[in-house]
Design a protein that fits this description.
The protein has a domain of 39 residues. The protein has 3 helices and no strands. The longest helix has 16 residues. The N and C termini lie far apart (46 Å). 2% of the residues are buried. This is DUF3012 domain-containing protein.
Length: 60
């Protein structure tokens, strides 16, 4: 029974993750701009800085 529940949780997490925009994409940057800064992880903050604040014009 525990295996079935664990499998269900894992599949749900995978399905939800599939709906997330790609890190660094315009949609991801917009999503992160709307998310409260206090809820960001260190990785998200670094990725936002790298991909959204210091984005070059040739990266779309």
């Amino acid at each position: 029974m525990k295996t079935v529940i664990s499998l269900g949780v894992l599949l749900s997490a995978i399905a939800l993750n599939g709906c997330m925009p790609e890190v660094g994409s315009k949609a991801w940057c917009e999503m992160m701009s709307e998310k409260p800064k206090g809820d960001w992880s260190m990785n998200e903050a670094g990725d936002y800085t790298k991909h959204c604040l210091f984005r070059s014009d040739d990266e779309n």
